[in-house]
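--- STAGE predict ---
source: upstream dedup step, 1 unique chain passed
mode: sequence only
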Amino acid sequence: MNTFFCSDHAREVGEDIIGSATNYQTYILVECPQPWTYNAFNSKWVPSNLQKLVEEVSRAKLPVRFLLIANDFSHKVDYTTLLIYQKQEGLSSGFQKHEFKLPHIEQVAAVVKQCLWGKMPDAETETNITRDILVCTHGSHDQCCARYGNPFYFHAAANIADLALDNVRIWKSSHLGGHRFAPTAIDFPNGRYYGFLDQESFRSILTRTGDIQCLNKVYRGWGIIPNPLQILEKELMLCHGWNWFNYKVAGKIIQQSLDNNTILAELTFEEPCGSLSTYQAQLIKDQTKTLKLKSSCNSKEDSVIVKYVVDRVGIVCKKVATYST
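--- STAGE serialize ---
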């Protein structure tokens, strides 16, 4: 019996989880009852037309992530919820949501195809839901997601109910990536990734209150900016506090050394008042945090996990909002 748990090991060696959020232009979340197989879209409730579409998108290497989602009612409802989150261009606070309630899961593929062609169907569902939080519970993909994801989901759902947050939905999700950080979650529409979560830090994330330094250990990064920049975004977030979550951000890599040891990064953010700031930072490979470890419970080989640290940061441009009277 395999007694190696990648999440336990990552905690033991003290892996820093920042910079591990993945970047996609579009997330397609399809409600589908469990159980799910190792490759979720091969599960028995997934129709062949949807399986085929997922394969086509994968072959075309489109920046699209398909995930199965479910909650405690998914096997009882007589419709399928389809959520499509699309990244906003330029300065952005995350993703734009399109929600559909479809009579049959067989209809998902046709709606998704239209969306990927830029022809959003008219049949969108109006809803008061402003946040969808996905918790990976995909135990058939990695045992840590069952061991830590399932109990976390159960208590998180109770936490949301206790806080009477009627605008927040929580979902069980298929493989999000980074199972060695279980329990892992994505918070939409902003698209921020979290790992090593506990209920106390989750409560702060839900309410955006308390000591923001709690995110230091559980924040994986923001899925709208390139991975190395996620460390700079975290530094700025911890400086600005919870107000940062109301800012719009854009980031880019300006220069990268051939050996990837140094990166010049730029991050621009806009405050709600309209003030605009641009920071540049030198990111360097952090030899003390770069690790060699098994990235999942089933890994046969160790992987080198490269980490960066902010070496120098400076403001290059600041434009303060002005108001005419």
